[in-house]
User: What shape does this take?
Amino acid sequence: MKRFRTITAICLAAISVMVAGNVWYLQGLYNSIKEQTLQTVGECVRRADILEIISRLNGSSNGNDDSFIKLSLMVEGEKNAYGEYEYPNLLDNLNKTMSGYFHLIEESDKRLPGRNHARLDSLFMKELSNSGLHPRQAFIREAGDSAGGDDGLWSMDFAVSDSQGPVYRASFSPLGGHILRQMSGIIATSAAILVLTGLLIWYLLHWVGRLRTIEQMKDDFTHNMTHELKTPVAVAYSAADSMLRYYDQSDEARNRQFLKIIMQRLSFLSGMIENILSMSMERFKTIKLDIEHVAVRPIVEEVAGMMELKADKPVRIEMEIADSLSIQADPLHLGNILSNLIDNAVKYSGESVRVSIMADKESMTVADNGIGIAKENLPFIFDKFYRVTSGDRYEVGGYGLGLFYVRQITELMGWSISVTSKPGQGTKFTIKFNGV
Assistant: This one.
């Protein structure tokens, strides 16, 4: 178990490191997509700026009736290691060249009307929409304009070229939602993996806990069986030893008494072994029940009489069962069920015990005034080898198979069994003959 805890701790630490690494990766991806988004916004600002200048050029009274503008653009190339010219970032360079050209026209043509900020904002919003960005609010101001209204907004400066200072300052609603939507696939996948890993760890630890419980139950069973076996073996051994050491052929009554003790103890051991074997699930699968019409009261009276004689404390068994009541059942196993329930009532009680047995066509109840069972133990009392190990109940003889047998037989007969109990007030078992 120590090795398992060590391996589990190492695995959990490794998973924690991987989760932290995944979070770090997602944060880096978020920042990368944010940077790309801001570049897209910058391109939208540039296009809106160019279109705003073009709209003023078309509307100016400069005698130009053309519906198009002729441009002569020159893009400078760079030589690579092989002496060939390359044009890196061609479209970006063309946009910057075009933007610089229009701003040069704007500065040189004094007849152009002033900048139309409303038109610029409208064009900016349109370009953002065409690029798949849909902020609730977006506007452009002159660089250095300190007017309010942009609290909580993202903003960026725009320059016509890298060598010039900012011309505009664009402000827009945060685009975190857009970025997260771009990351939705990997976020959903990562979250699903994390949830499945957590469920798997929980399931593993849950079953390990159950296995530890089963292991403890097995140890308790071994301890209880050892305790149960030692007594009859010791008695039989003592009787046989006495016969060997002090054998008196003339004392036939004494010899018979010793042999009777030995036979009784061996019979007890045989019955105990048979009970243990009968708990095998394979035996339950192949067991054949002799179902017939059974008069309930005679069986209850017979079992009650045997239990009252067997008990080492005062036992009073009260019955409320009609003489005419009969049910479909296996009489042998019905008697064994009652014997187990009454025997538990006697074992787990004080100096005296009162058992109440009631039955009708629908159900049978066996209630006692014993020490009761704690609520946390009730779900497990029908489990194989389970025994309550709190207080003085652990000292009671047994090996945790009686109630397991009761449940298996009741289910084989198509019945159901339930239990209610309160510590200090007793326990009540209810068998439903219709299985509901």
About this structure: DSSP finds ten helices and twelve strands in the chain.
